[in-house]
Amino acid sequence: MTRLLSLLFCLATLVVRAEKSQAAFDDAGGAFLMRELGFTEDDLRGVGNGRVAFRQLATEDGREVAAAGIVRVAITPAEFVRRLTDIASFKKADAVLQIGTFSAPRDITDVAGLTLPSADVRNLRSCRVGDCGMQLPSYIIDPDEFRDLVSSDTRVLPTFPDLRRHLMTALTSAPTVSDVLYWSKEKVARKEVVSVTHLAIARQPSTSPFAYVAGSKQLYGSHYFDAALGLTIVLRDPTSRASAYVAYVNRSRVDAFGGLFGGITRRIVRSRARGALADFLEVLQRRLETGGSLE
Question: If you average pLDDT over residues 148-162, what whole number do you get?
Answer without folding.
Answer: 90
